[in-house]
Amino acid sequence: MARLSRIPPALPFAAQVAIFSRLQAVNPTPETELEFVNPFTLVVAVALSAQATDAGVNRATRGLFAVADTPEKMLALGVEGVTEHIRTIGLYRQKARNVIALSRILVEDYGGEVPDSRAALTSLPGVGRKTANVVLSCAFGHPAQAVDTHIFRVGNRTRIAPGRNVDEVERAIEDHVPARFQAHAHHWLILHGRHVCQARRPRCGICPIADLCPYEEKTE
Questions:
Q1: What residue segments make up the domains of the chain, in order of their start?
Q2: pLDDT in tens, 45-93
Q3: For an engineered disulfide with 193, which of 30, 97, 110, 154 has Cβ 3.0 to 4.6 Å away?
């Protein structure tokens, strides 16, 4: 078995407080960039967002959610109806089948309501842990940490939450980010990764936490 690389320690408590205090000051109430009208449409939107941008998903779901914002209406639309709305999204055929399958389960097993437990959510077709955590956070206010590529990068680059994989980064956020910031930590980190701490060239010149970040290859 290959030897695992050493994980650097997470930033200490005082640094975590300082960083998240600044992120909070810049954006006190961060929200997901996915458009949704209720927990069901959020589940669908997040399931569709795999290997797709939020902007692309939003363009496709505006028309879809206008005609099908409940599991019952989605079932009435059928696979072909869903497919017509989401053709611009990657893997749209499989995603359309998943949307119909999860809608059927919600109707048959949950009375048409979205369950508020991770285990129940991840039992739905096309819904993994990250999707479930987004739903728990955005729809139900639970401090769940949905780690995507942006959060994985920011967590490691800044040492807010270092880890070798998404599970380790998720645990590091839960362990090291002060509880007062947990409810919005996922949103602050993902937005920071998308718009400031970008993959190829981080925008350190406009970063509100640049002086607190240990990343050595700073840019202007």
A1: 13-31+144-212, 39-140
A2: 999 998 899 999 999 999 999 999 999 999 999 999 999 999 999 999 9
A3: 154
- From the candidates 148, 175, 211, 218, give the one annotated as an active-site residue: 148
54, 69, 95, 130: the catalytic one is 130
> b/e map of 11-31 (b: 16 or more CB within 10 Å)?
beeebbeebbeebeeeeeebe
Between CA 12 and CA 160 the distance in angstroms is 9
Q: Would you say the C-alpha torsion 198, 203, 209, 215 has a positive or negative sign?
A: positive
For residue 148, indicate whether it is catalytic.
yes
Enter the tokens of residue 190: 């993902």
Alpha helix stretches (DSSP H) within the chain? 13-26, 39-48, 54-67, 71-86, 92-110, 118-122, 129-140, 149-158, 166-176, 182-195
Q: What does pTM read for this prediction? A: 0.89
Q: What is the CATH number of domain 13-31+144-212?
A: 1.10.1670.10
